[in-house]
C-alpha cells in the first residue's frame, strides 16, 4: 500500500529545512541584479541544471523566501516534491516537458505575472544532461523576462554517478558558492523552432560560463 504524499511531505520538509539551513551559501552576483529587475517591473526567470536542484532550491528558500515559483512533474513523486516546495514557500506549476508541459508553462507564467520569480530546471526531468529544452527560452520570450543562469558548487557533496544527471547532494554544513551568469533576453518577433534552438544553445553556453574553473 502506498503512503499518501500528505503524510510524507511534513517530515521531508523538516529534514530539508534543517539540512539546507546548515549549508553556508555564498553569493557571487545575482541578488542585486534580480532585485533591480523586479523593482523595475521586469519579469525574471532563473535557469538551473537538474543536478544542482537540491542546493539551489535551498538557496532560494534562504535568500529569496516566498518569492519563487517552479515547475514540478505530475507524477506521485512530483506530488510529494510539490507539497514540500509549497511548505518552504515556493509556488508550483505542475507538469514537465514529457507530460503536461504546456499547462505547466501557462501556470508558471501566471506566477510570474503575479510577481514571482520563475525557476526552471532546463534539462529536466529526464535529460539529456546539460541539454536545454525549449520551455525556458519560450517562456522568457513570451513574458519578456530576463533569463538568468544560476549554478552552484558545494565544497563537499555526494554525486550520484549512476543517475542520468549525476545529481549532487551537498553535505550538511558545507560551504556552497552560488554563481549567477549573464542575463539573456529574447526580442525575436516569433518563437520559431530555429529561434528556440538558437536560444537554447545560448543558454547552454551561459550556464557553462557562469561556473568559474575550479
Topology:
Layout: H1 5-21, E1 24-28, H2 31-39, E2 44-48, H3 53-63, E3 68-72, H4 76-87, E4 91-94, H5 101-113, E5 117-121, H6 134-143, E6 146-152, E7 157-159, E8 168-170, E9 175-180, H7 193-210
Parallel strand pairs: 1-9, 2-5, 2-6, 3-4, 3-5
Antiparallel strand pairs: 6-9, 7-8
Helix pairs in contact: 1-3, 1-4, 6-7
Q: Your description of this structure?
A:
The structure is a single chain. With about 210 residues, the chain is of the alpha/beta class. It has one domain. Helix content is about 40%, strand content about 20%. It has 7 helices and 9 strands. It has helices spanning about 5-20, 30-40, 55-65, 75-85, 100-115, 135-145, 195-210, and strands spanning about 25-30, 45-50, 70, 90-95, 115-120, 145-150, 155-160, 170, 175-180. It has a 7-stranded mixed β-sheet with strand order 1-9-6-2-5-3-4, with helices on both faces. Strands 7-8 form a two-stranded antiparallel sheet. α1 (about 5-20) packs across α3, α1 crosses α4 (about 75-85) and α6 (about 135-145) packs across α7. The N and C termini lie far apart (about 45 Å).
